[in-house]
Every structure is written in C-alpha cells, then in structure tokens.
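Methods, example record. To illustrate the input and output format used throughout this study, we show the complete record for SusC/RagA family TonB-linked outer membrane protein. The sequence lines were provided to the predictor; the line carrying structure tokens was produced by it.
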Amino acid sequence: MKSRLLLTVLLLFTSFAFAQNLDVTGTVFDASGLALPGVNVKVKNSSKSTTTDFDGSFKLTDVSKGTILVFSYIGFRTQEAAVSGTNLTVKLTDDAKSLEEVVVIGYGSQKKREVTGAVAVLDSKTIDILKPARIEQALQGTISGVNVTTQSGAPGAPLDIRIRGIATNGENKPTVIVDGYVGDLGILNPNDIESITVLKDAQAAIYGTIGANGIILVTTKMGKKNSKTRVSFNSYAGFQETSRKLPTLKATEYALLLNESYANGGRALPYPNVSGLGNGTNWQDEVFQMAPIINNDLTISGGSEKITYSISGSHLDQEGIVGGDKSGYLRNTARIALGADLSDKFKLKTNVIYTYFTRNTLNENGLGSVLFNALNVPATLKPYDENGNYSLVPSTTGLGTEIINPLAQIANTYNDYNYKKLNGNFGLDYKIFKGFTLSASIGFNTANSESKDFSKQISYGGKVFDVQRSSVTQKAVNDNDYSFDLFGTYNTKIAESHNITGTLGTTIYKQWGNGLSATGFDVPNNTWENADISLTKGISETLTNSSYVYDQRRLSYFGRLQYDYKGRYLLSAMLRRDASTRFGPGNRVGYFPSFTGGWVVSDESFFGEPKFINFLKFRASYGTLGNDQIPNYGYLGLLNGEATYVFNGTLGNGVAMGQVPNPDLKWEEAQKFDVGLDLKLFNDKVSIVADYFIDKRKDLLIPNIPVSGINGTGAPGASAPTLNAGTVKNSGFEFAIDYKEKLSDSFSLSVGYNVTFLKNEVTEVKNGTGFIEGGAFGVGQPAPSRMEVGKPIGYFYGYKTDGIFQNQAEIDAHPSQIALGANAAPGDIRYVDVNGDGVINSSDRTDIGKPIPDATMGFNLQLNYKALDFAIFTFASIGNDMARNYERTLSDANRLDYVLDRWTGEGTSTTTPRVTTGATANNVFSDYFIEDASYIRIQNIQIGYTLNPNVSQKAGITKLRLYAGVNNLYTFTKYKGFDPGASFGPGNRDNVSQSPIGAGIDYGFYPIPRTYLLGLNINF
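The corresponding predicted structure is encoded as:
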C-alpha cells in the first residue's frame, strides 16, 4: 500500500514538472522599438539556442519555467531574461563600448564608433524591401555620395556606380570586394548579401591602386552558430510596363505639319487631303509590351558550436518591355558557404558562387535604335502592308536612310549571349598567440562566355540597315583571375587605456584570359536555326577572324596601424605598395599612404551625462590612392592593328601597329580629403552623419590623345596613345539623418534622408589644345561635349539661343548667322553672339549645360503596425542636363507634340521655331536641345502582411509574409525624354568603360520599366 502511494506521489510530481515546460515565443527590439533580426537567443548553460527572424521573433520549445535566456547581438549589451510565461518581449540597449554594428574596412573589421573614415553600410533588410533585380539598384538613394545611373532599362543591362562624382575620363566604377576577393556586383543574387559597405574616402587606401574610385565591400550571408537548420524561401512574380511614353504627333497632326513645312519650303503639299487619316499608328504602342518577371530563391542555413553553413540557389527570369524575349535576361545562381572552427587556433571559411546567365539584346541606344525608330516613323504609316509583311519606310529625302520599321527591326534581330562564372574564396585564420592572428585566403574568378550574332540577308528598302549578304559572328571569351592574401593582425592593450591594432600583409593578384572571334558568310536558308559557322561556306576577301590573349599581374604589400586612447582619441595610418605590369618598368611601382583620425567628444568628462546628445564624434582623413584601370600593355607597341592592303588589284591581309605606345604611362593618383561628424540624439533615436570632401584626381589616364599624323594613328586598327593628360577635382558635402521611433506597442517608424552636393571641375588638360572632345549629336555635326579647364568634365559645348526671330527687322539688326548653314528667316532660332565680333559662327560655341547633377538625395520611410509593414524609397537628382537627340532632324520624321506650339507668324511663339523643308540653321547643336533633367523618382513602394506566428507555426512555418510592391512607380520631371536618370557615354578603347565626355546625350534611352510585384517570404 505504501509503495502504491509513493508511486502516485512521484507521478504527480513528474507530471507537475513536465507541466512547467513551455513553448516560448517572443520578440526582440532595439532601444527605439524596431525589431532586431539575427539576435542569438540561448538557454543559459545549455546548447539549446535559436536566432530571431526578419521581424525579431523567436521560438524555443520545451523550456522550463524560470529558465534563463541569454540574448546577444553585435553592438548591443548582452541581456538575460527569465521565462515566466509563453510570451516574452525583450528590449536590447546599445553597448556603450560597442556602438552599433561591426563593419568591415578591408583586411579587417572595426566597431562603427571607432571608424575614422567615411564609411556607409547597407544591410540585408533594406535589400529585401527593395527587391532589386540587380543589387546595384539598391544603392540608389540609400547611401549618400553614391549615384547609380542606367545604361539601358533592358533586362540585364549594366548599371554605372559613381562614388562622390566622376573623376576620370577612363574607368570610373568602384572596385567590388566580395568576401575579400575582387568580384562582380552585378551577377550576385541580392538575397545572398548580408551587407554592403562603401568606403568613400582615404579609408580605402589599404587597397592602393584599385581604390581611387572607391571600394564596395560585400559580405555574403553565413549560417549562425548554435542555431537549428533554417529554410528560407522567397518568391515574387510580376509584370513590367514602360514607365513613360512620349507624346508624338497623330496621323492628322503629322500630315498638317508636313503640309505647312513643305509650303514654307516652296514645295507641293504631300497630303492634299488629310481627312480620314485619324490617329494613325502609335508606334510606341506597337513596340512596348507587358513583360513578365519571376524570381525564386531558397536558402538553407544553420550551425553548431563549431560549424556554420549556408546553401542557396536562385532563379531570375525577366523579359523586356521592348522585344519581349528578344531583350530577355535569365540568371541562375548557386552558392555554398561554410565556416568551421577546426580547433581553438584554426578557423576555416569558404564561399563559392556559381552564376549562369543568358541575355538577348536589341539596338538599345544610338541613332537607329528601336525606340529611335518608334519615335521617328510617321503615324501615317501602318505596321504591315496588305500582304501581312512588315511595311517599308520610304527612302525619301525627308525620311533619310536610317529610319526603319521598328517591328521589322525587332523581328530581324538575332543574338544570344551566355555567361558562366565560378568564383569564391578559401580562408584560414590561425591564432598564433593571444592577440595575434595570421590570415590567409585565396580568391578566384573564372568565367567563360559565348555569343552569337546573326545578320539576316534583308532589305528595308534602301536603308543603311540593309544586309546584302547573311553572316554569323561567334565569339568565345575566357577570363580568369586569382588573388592570394596573407596578413597578420595584432591586437594589444597597454595600461588599460591604449588600444593598438596592427595589420601587415601582402597580396598577389593575377588576371589572364583569351578571346576568339570569327565570322562566317552565307548562312544556309538565311535562318537563325542554321546560323553557325560550321554551316557557312561563303568566302570573304577581308580578314574575318581575330583573337587575343592577356596577362596582368600585381604584387602588393600593405600595412595599417590603428590606435585609440580609451576609445576616445582615434588614429589610423595606412601604407600600400603596388607593382603592376600595366605600366612600364620605370613606373611600375606606386606608394599609397593615408591617415585618419577621430575624436569621440561625447566620451570627454566635460561633456557630462548624455542628455540631448548621446554620441558625438569628429573625423578627418587624408590619403593617396591609385587607378590603373586601362587596357593592358599600353606602354608597348603591339602588332594588333588591322592591315589589309591592295597589291596588284588583290587584297592582302597582314598585321600592323595598334595603339601608339607610351612608355611613360603611370598611375592615376587620387588625393582624398574628408572631414566629418557622427552624431546621435534623443536616446539614439536620431542619427546624423555629415561630411565635407575634396577628391583631386591627377595624371588622368586618357586614351586616344591626338598626336602627329606621321605616327599612322589614322590607319585601320591603329589609335593614338593613352597619356597622363589631365586633372579633375570633385568637392562636396554629404548629409544623412535617420530617425527611429516606437510610438506604441503596435506602431513604429523609421525615416531616413540623405543629400549630396557635388561640384566637378577640370583643372588641367595636357594635350596641346587645352580641351578634349567627345560624343555625337545628329549627323555630321561637331562633337557636342568637352573636357576643358574650369568646366565640369563632359559639359555640353554649343550655341546659346535667344528666342525666335519674329520679323525681318529683327534679323537685319542681328549679327549674320549664315556661317551656321543658312540665312535666317522669321521663325528661325536666334543665336547669341557670345564673343561679340558681329557674326555668329563656330567661335560663338560655349558652355550650355552639363550632365553631372549638382545634388542627389534620397528619402526613405518604413512603418510597422502590428502585422502590417509599409516602405517607400525615393531618389532625386537636381541640376543635371540632358541633350535631346532622339528626334531625327529630317523634314518628314515624326515629331513630339510640343511642335504644335511652333512659330507660325509674328508673336505666335518665342520658343519653338517654324517648320520648313528649306535650309535653316535651326538644327545645329544649341541649348534648344538641352533640357533640365532634374527629377524625383518613387523608386519603391511595398506593403506586407505577416501571418500570426501562432497560426503559421501549426503548419511548421516560423514566418509567412505576403507582400505587394511597385518598383519605379513614377518619375516627376520636366524632361521630355524617356528616362532623365540614364546616362551613357561613348565607349573607351578598353571596350569596357564609358567616357563621361559625351554622356547625357539621349538617343532614345530604353526606359527603366515600372514593375508590379506579388511575393511571399517563408521561413521554416
């Protein structure tokens, strides 16, 4: 009987004990009430742990009441809380000794409060909200001093990143470092990125010759220690449409305009009867279309006490709003990242990424592009003739030889490009003794691409696009590089007040590759399906094959010494020595020193207890960086030019000198100066960062500087040399303010604003003439852009206008304009006699605008109310101009509807000239074609709903979020063209970079699409 009673008591106690075990859910916030993702939640003195998700939520199962949970997160004080129920809310406070997060600064990391350079960080949460197809888009408007412009809105088109302005006529893009090795930002899956750090000033000097244009450090996602396997699936689908259509003339309007133009020119009317023409064909409606976009990515991550892992894959499929799959883009990525503590001394980290993408392209920019034709083909023409074939645009004088049916152009465009890349790194840290760690890593990139272009035999009716003989061109390119970094880091503390960190290391970098191109003629059946060189049997008298190889190497040594006194006085000094094979033996080595300093004023005793101001730090930096982004072997004379000669009436092929060598080539040198402050107010709710900077770029590496003709630079394949021939100065001011507040238990907000003011000025041009020309406008006109002392690089150089001549008396009283091509008549543009010599000629050309903005800014707002979240991101560019060049200046080409307000008689217009088929000077490059391209763009709006975790967890889902969003919703601008944010200059001789001399000239830019998205985020 006693034994039964004892058993009953034990069972009661046991059941009572089990009844105390709980499933605990909770949310972790920061001091301002915003949820913190990635916080480590660990049961004290146990291996059981988890991490908070995107919304700061966590769940631990089978936890006994009274258990102590430990919450830890970088930049915040570790905090403990006892389990008293099934729900727990924890608020972490900033760690006074570790303000905010740790940021990477190149060959190491540093607490943000101790950073003395101009460094900005973009986190994965912002990237997730923006949902960019290419990660560069997420930098626009989110980081001050960074401007992103499009080369085209077509899927997969490159984007140009500029940090603190344009400083050189060569390669202006920053260097991207992915987990320690040189990588490519554009091909990464945005969901694989944990953070992006931008080094804008002399802090980047640790990278020496590749740091002049700024450094972008990308940290990819890793698993977290002591966390269960987490599966995250993100998917969105949507459709794209053009964000803008231009108001061209309808058929009746066009016919009436042409009648007036012909009458003014003394010619017979082309449309004696305009009745029945109606609206005609809207060619933009014909070429623009809705286009789908689909993205899926899956990530599996987790970790134990000593091993972390993250495995992911993604798929993006995007068609174009012009041409559909003829301008489509498909990208697949796969990634695996592993970290392992091999022992107490050895730590291993590896990250490997595979990317495969295909891209098809149309003629997107320049005279003769698809949109150029859609704007210029008359509305009176139909897309198809009576037989159902594409209609031909007449080859009359009034329509020229380059305007063709854009639908036929799309249908007869055939090309394919596929790209495969494997890149990654393997790193090992060895803790030799306390405070000293030796790090070694190998980074690599290996890429192979293949392309095929088919030119179909076709006639557009006597146009320049007619193809008399079908051909196919196939190319294969192999590019490789590797880097080996070996550096040691030593940390020590002296007398509890003096903190010293020293870094010393070396980098070996090698880049090599080859390319092959061949063309075959007479494609069987004149079809894309048979477009392969193996099937072509046609013979050409000219050379159709070409190839190249290259090999470039760099050996570097670097050192950095960091010192702080009680975290209050901060000093850092860096020195890097680079030796590059891109320069001749006499200029192969460069030295790049820099110094930074900071003072945390808020730590001073006289500052008192933090009240209104919680943190105040002043910063300053100065250093020298380099730029070697030029083609290889510029200091040598290579036989890589064309050489086709006529001997005895037959063609002979050989080789000739290419670019004229310059053995004196040396680095571009960037001298960067920055002073700034970091400020936190109102219990860290308000953060302010301000900087004033000067970036002076000396010895610009400028290609194709004209030299004496006796050197043969006009021969086929030859070119003028690359010279150190200029100096450019960028100066400006950056300001960013962020405000975070939790207004109630259900409602919180985050607001951010940043602005950058920039002044660009050329201070030296060493080429004998004092200026460098570039770009193109119209047909046969002088170069419209210049690089000249005292002006912004690439400013527009043309004639100033002064309204419209209203009568003959005004013409008689004005200097003659006949030197511009024709006598003026009432209704023509009146040009300004700039030099006052009594005649209007080429000497009166002057500064009429610039493509570089005076200021850029971003405004971002995020709101959270219970399970709802809302975000809006905007961007503005102020003070930049663009040249309107998408209208063909031919009498019979279609026009935009602003011409309806043209001059038709005295007093009718003072802005838009008359129309005529007669000779006029109205089409010379002038400020009539220059427009203010300032704009404000709503880049992204997104609203989401997160299902109650108590509901989703019943299905084994820790988080389920649904959202809808719109990218590129609307652009407010006075600019008449498709996209005021586009800027695409002529290509440099390296076939990679674009020159800023000639940028901002609009040939009919393919607009960035407006994209509507529906998506979901699921975590298991």
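Annotations derived from this record:
Residues 301 and 310 are 4 Å apart (CA to CA).
The two ends are 51 Å apart (CA to CA).
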